[in-house]
Each structure stands twice: as C-alpha cells, then as structure tokens.
Amino acid sequence: MSVITKQLDEKVEEYHSRKITKEYAVVYADSTYISVKRGTVGKEALHILIGITISGEKEILSYELFPTESPENYKDMLEDLKKRGLNKVLLFVTDGLKGMKKKLEEAFPKAKYQTCWTHVIRNVLLKVRSKDKVEISEDLKAVYQALTKDEAEKNLALFIDKYKGKYPKVTNSLLDVRDCLFTYYLFPKSIRRSIYTTNIIENYNKHLKKGIKKKEQFPNERSLNRYVCVSACEYNVKYVGISHYGFSMAKEELENMIEEIYIYTSFYSLLEFRFFYDFVKNKGKPSLNS
After folding, report:
1. FRET pair for 42, CA 20 to 30 Å: which of 15, 217, 277, 282?
2. Domain limits for position 41
3. Are residues 175 and 230 located together in one domain of the fold?
C-alpha cells in the first residue's frame, strides 16, 4: 500500500467517524448508480445525504454504497449519524421512493417530509401522450409555484378534475402522495424554491459522475470510497461560511422552528410524563408537588 493510499484510507475513516454538531433545516436523500468491480463489474447505488444547516451551509453528511437503493439503507445511515451527534432535522426531501417516508420518520419522528416535485413531474410525463406534455407541465407549474398552500391545493384539485377522465393513472398517483406535496409551504418563503425538489443533491451527483467517467470503473469498493470521500470533503470545505440562497433571510424563523419542535415539545412531553408518574404513584390522588 502506497503512502498516498494509506493517507486516503485514514481520511475516509476520519470522515465516516467525525462528530456531527450542527442543526439542519433540510436533509436531501438520493442515490446514483456507479460501476464497481466485485469479480465482475456491476452498477451499485451510492446513497448520499446532503444537509443545509440553519444558517444555510451545505454539507455532505454521509455516503454509503449498497447493491440497490432502499429506504432501509437511508435509515441505517441516519442512525449512524445520530450516534455521531445528529439530533435535529426539520425537513427531509427525497425522490418519493416507496417506503421512504416511513423509514425517515422512524429515524426522525419530529421531522417533516417533502416529495421532490421534479420527480413528480417526470413520473407524470411518462404516463401521458407527447402532444399533452406541454399543457400538463404548465398546469402542474401552476400547482407547485402557487403563492400559498391553499392556492396550490385548489390548483391541484382543478388539475385532477381536468385529467381524471383522460389520465386516471396520473391523477391517482398524485392523490397517493398528496400529503407529501406541499410540506414546503410550512417553511419560510425565501427558501421554498430550494426545498420542493432534490435539485441540490442531483446537481452534486452529476458533478460526481462527470469525474467518475474518466475512471470508467472502480476496481473495488475501497477505491470508490477514497474517490467519493475526497469529493465530499472538497464540497464541504467549499461551502463553509456560505449561506445558500434565501437561508440567511430565514435563519431566525428556522431557529424558532427548531426550538418549537425539538425543545418546547420535549419540555411539555416531560411535564406530561411527570404528571402521569405522580398520578400512578399516588394511585390517582393529586400530588401536592404537581
């Protein structure tokens, strides 16, 4: 093993064991498929988590290679991050992989969940005729670019009513994920354009794969790990101290949301537990200390 390779392996170990100390307004989850050699060459899913802190700094929190993309894999990654200090996330944004919401809620039950609108639109356009795609795209734009949640829900209802006869599979698919389409309206207006899609993580994946193309394939997983680690560390250093668009204006409101969701709710839960404990301890009689 060369000195450089040894240093890179140490860097990988340091990256995957580093402490996570910040609070995150949003965490994006997505995978990209990369060719890896394990005897034979095959494509495997590189799972990536990118977070934006309350102050707006972007950071690749973690990456892991798995044979295929799975919600359980993302949950395992989050559980590892929790052991290293990650404990406050306001929102997860993903491509809407089946079962994803459930697994993310198991890891972070207080966090909200948003399905990526870019993926929603792609899936809709796959199910319609070419001559209808422009009109349908414009009608959907009126939904996700609405100024308020009420207006968005009204425009979605109009869309479903307009197309339910012609494209029932499309309208049914939208109704199935309706609860996850408009979560971004709960957040400050200045950051909404950044949190209703997974574009941030998809842009990074494109950048990563552009560099990977030059290598064609990785001879083993450790080789891939070294390459991605260097890329992730460079990304994180690049955005230290840089606030993503709209987040500086939203910082105070996001801090209040963190406090309300993770501090006040925990405090009141503790009070409820204390009341219940005293109630049981005193066999239903009021406690003089309550």
Report:
1. 15
2. 1-115+198-245
3. no
Tell which residue, 142, 170, 179, has the closest CA to residue 158: 142
Give the end-to-end CA distance of the chain in Å, rounded to a whole number: 66
Are the C-beta atoms of residues 203 and 60 closer than 8 Å to each other?
A: no
Tokens of 132: 């209808």
Chain-wide mean pLDDT for the chain?
91
Q: List, in sequence order, every beta strand (DSSP E) within the chain.
A: 24-38, 40-53, 58-66, 89-94, 112-115
Same-domain pairing of 75 and 19: yes
Amino acid identity, residue 31? S
Q: How many structural domains does the chain have? A: 2
Question: pTM (2 decimals)?
Answer: 0.89
Block residue for tokens 């990785």 = 218
Contact indicator for 174, 124 with CB cutoff of 8 Å: yes
